[in-house]
Amino acid sequence: MLGKFFKKPDAERNDRVPPGQYLTNGFPVLTYGRTPDMASFVWRFKVWGLAKEKVFSWDDFVATPKSQFTADFHCVTRWSKLDVQWTGIRVTDFLKLVEIDPKAKHVLAHCYGGYTTNIAFEDFAREENFFAYELFGEPLPTEHGGPMRLVVPHLYAWKSAKWINGLEFTEQEQLGFWEVNGYHRRGEPFAEERYSGI
Ligand SMILES: Nc1nc2c(c(=O)[nH]1)N[C@H]1C(S)=C(S)[C@@H](COP(=O)(O)O)O[C@H]1N2
Ligand SMILES: [Mo]
Predict the structure, then answer these.
(1) One digit per residue, pLDDT tens: the chain, 198 residues?
(2) Whole-model pTM above 0.90?
(3) Measured from the CB, is residue 146 less than 6 Å from ligand 1?
(4) Domain locations in the chain?
(5) What are the residues whose beta carbons fall under 8 Å from the beta carbon of 7, sequence distance 6 or more?
(6) How far is the CA of 160 from the centre of ligand 2 (A)?
(7) Structurally, what CATH architecture does the domain formed by 2-6+17-27+39-190 represent?
(8) 112 Cβ below 6 A of ligand 1
(9) Distance between CA atoms of 140 and 148, rounded to whole angstroms?
(10) Which of 38, 68, 88, 159 is least surrounded by Cβ atoms within 10 Å, i.e. has the fewest?
């Protein structure tokens, strides 16, 4: 049954597929709980904590020049999808718009619906991370996190927060939803950082 949907990685692709992962051609939707009814929200994005508090409207947010990104996507439940095409805003470009206290060492991403996930500042402020609002050239579908999600390609996909609506900067690490529930605090797929082992 599984073999119908998930195939073992091709030999030439092995180096892109982390250990214990299987390739899928589809794009499964993985959401804990209900998908928030985004139509009922006026989208806003807030930055706070060890950063000067600032609230962005949709227009403020997307005023940052957009770029295209192709990235592999690895879910800790063992499926990986290669070459996902996104359009969005580079995290490093966005960070130029906010004043962050140098004491900030961690970021907690907040989402409509209440999901959170933690990312160390050095993992967050990397060139290849972005806020995405298009998927394969179409507006990002709600089930995949539309209108806006975070994408952090070098960590397991639970760090790629869907329906993102804010960033809280802190000195001490505050664990997010899955991290409190036993997932690894960092989640690097090539090191198989799946669970915290506590
Ligand atoms: N807000 C929110 N973001 C989330 C999740 C979630 O449940 N809620 N699930 C995470 C997990 S476990 C994965 S694998 C990816 C799945 O993204 P997809 O549904 O677009 O495939 O989103 C991540 N971001
Ligand atoms: Mo996941």
Answers:
(1) 455 567 666 665 668 999 999 999 999 999 999 999 999 999 999 999 999 999 999 999 999 999 999 999 999 999 999 999 999 999 999 999 999 999 999 999 999 999 999 999 999 999 999 999 999 999 999 999 999 999 999 999 999 999 999 999 999 999 999 999 999 999 999 999 999 975
(2) yes
(3) no
(4) 2-6+17-27+39-190
(5) 22, 23
(6) 9
(7) Alpha-Beta Complex (3.90)
(8) no
(9) 7
(10) 68
